[in-house]
Amino acid sequence: MLKGQKVVVVMPAYNAESTLRRTHQEVLEEGIVDLVIVVDDASSDQTARLAGELPCTLVHVHLRNQGYGANQKTCYRLAIEQGADIVIMVHPDYQYTPKLIPAMASLVASGLYPCVLGSRILGGYALKGGMPLWRYIANRALTFVENLLMGAKLSEYHTGYRAFSKALLEQLPLEANSDDFVFDNQMLAQILWLGYPIGEVSCPTKYFTDASSINFRRSCVYGLGCLKTALLYRLSRWGLCRTALFSRKK
User: Which of 4, 34, 37, 164 has the fewest Cβ atoms within 10 angstroms?
Assistant: First the structure.
């Protein structure tokens, strides 16, 4: 626990057998995590079996592959059902260091931010950590346009390292979001729509063989989805369209 608040780490997993144990071990080493929830999205390897052997872990398995966004929907639902006050998403591929969990959780527990992101851009860690140049350029371009359309000043929208308060998660219409990768982007847009601040901490990251990464084609689909989300946000602010993504106001 942290300041009397239950901390739950969720791991949306798919074929993460080779990196899950190492990531999980470092998550628990931080000493504040009460429970780890692993949701296996019908992996073809031994991810689910391995997860079942890990301590302080609840395992849920999708019988068919539902997608990254659908996996997160299950993660957050289970975390709230388990009484989480603070929920932190850590990818089990060891791309993001679990050592930032205390810092991110503290920012949420203190009430300063209901959402905190681990940014690969702050501190210049992205390229140093091996992010491909084309991916870095796309990240910066998308972030610029999204900040412009949504009136924010985030360093990036595309990190998978995130911490949330339970109160915030319960307000977001997550079921309206995509079951694919653009879910991440839609979630941040919804938080901005509700008027909540988003904090960021500098996060080193690692790109290596076992780290998950979508291919160029799916990256293009994701990028177009991000632009569509930002445009819908702006049109909704102007009252020119209605969408279930932004169905609630603070």
Answer: 4
